[in-house]
Amino acid sequence: MPYSTITGIGHYVPKNVVTNHDLTKVMETSDEWIRERTGIEERRYITKGKETTTTLAYEASIKAIADAGIDKEDIDFIVFATLSPDYYFPGAGVLLQRELGIAKTEIAALDIRAQCSGFVYALTTADQFIKSGTYKKILVVGAEVHSVGLDFTTRGRNVSVIFGDGAGAVILEATEDKGVAIQATSMHSDGTYAEKLSYMYPGAHGGYFIEKYAIEGFDVDYGDPEFGGYFFNQNMIDQNRVYPHMEGQAVFKMAVRKFPEVIMETLTKAGMEVSDLDMLIPHQANLRINQFVAKTMRLNEDQVYNNIMRYGNTTAASIPIALSEARDEGKVKKGDNVVLAAFGAGFTWGAVVLKWGRD
């Protein structure tokens, strides 16, 4: 049975830097307020009309392809993780295939909708396809554009100050050498708390779950009972329902519990202990969460890579961006034991333990 190894990596973030001070011009907030709660100092936003989730993914992908030293035509599968696709359908994977100019190869493209855990889910999925012998060279991407779907008013500041745009990608290839491969993976979810962190409208639920589970803060809107209309209508816009919803404390409490659990679970699967860990690349949701996890696991600052200060939360893109930067900065080196871990909406969470095989 073959193993899978990362042979190429790349990331891309838009040029537009948006600081905390910039946000104070459109909402009641402050640099101190944002830093204290999230650790974020700035984030990147796309240029509207010129960049999309797919174009960011394209830029990251061509860097990963070049880094791997392969031709784009060698790719035999695309796994694309995002919660902010360009279209509701089709998925972003086929759009990336088109942008790369490899549509004629007719390779499969799979979209992963696991939000902040998206890249871990995508990498785990790709790992299994390689282990099964189905594919040999897989492009795994995490890309997001949040800036076009946030509420930039005081009402929406608790969510809007957190998120940024960006993309990261890796080439995952088959190898016989376990010493440079993914060692173990874990994925979990608990749908009990689905609405705690959600983007419910537009959607096809028609109020069903809101009524069934007595979800507070949302009224049922059936639209026209004969002709529908609840997927998207003017009433949703008028009542500001078309923005993300987050109950921050609930998310924080679950994240700081599940992060250490899944890291330890996956290290155990790999036959490792915390003392074997060289670098933890956590999802960049909140600096306070990552610091809490590091303290709980008794990791020092050099063992945890954080870049949320510069980019905010880029959800599915955050881990590949951070891993790419850590490699570029020499903080992830050949032979290092690296853990990727994420927690996000769903709730979903997971981890990957790998031995870094690149110089």
Strand portion, in percent? 15-25%
Helix content: 25-40%
- What's the CATH H-level superfamily name of the largest domain? Thiolase/Chalcone synthase
List the helices and strands in order: EEHHEHEHEHEHEEEHHEHEHHHEE
The residue-averaged pLDDT reads: 94
Secondary structural class: alpha/beta
Number of strands: 13
**Topology-level CATH name of the largest domain:** Peroxisomal Thiolase, Chain A, domain 1
Distance between the termini: 25 Å
> Could you say which overall geometry the principal axes of the C-alpha atoms support?
globular
What radius of gyration results from the CA coordinates?
20 Å
CATH top level class name of the largest domain? Alpha Beta
The largest pleated sheet is described as: 5 strands, mixed
Describe what this molecule looks like in 3D.
The chain is α/β, with parallel strands linked by helices. The protein has three domains: 3-178, 3-Layer(aba) Sandwich (Peroxisomal Thiolase, Chain A, domain 1), CATH 3.40.47; 182-193 and 247-355, Peroxisomal Thiolase, Chain A, domain 1 (3-Layer(aba) Sandwich); 201-242, no CATH class. It is 31% helix and 22% strand. It has helices at residues 20-23, 31-38, 53-68, 92-100, 118-131, 157-160, 208-212, 234-238, 248-269, 287-296, 308-311, 318-328, and strands spanning 3-12, 16-19, 42-45, 77-81, 108-112, 137-144, 166-175, 182-189, 197-198, 245-246, 279-282, 337-344, 348-355. The strands form four sheets. A five-stranded mixed β-sheet has the order 1-7-6-4-5, sandwiched between helices. Strands 8-13-12-11 form a four-stranded mixed β-sheet, with helices on both faces. β4 (77-81), α4 and β5 form a beta-alpha-beta unit. The model has no long low-confidence stretch (mean pLDDT 94).
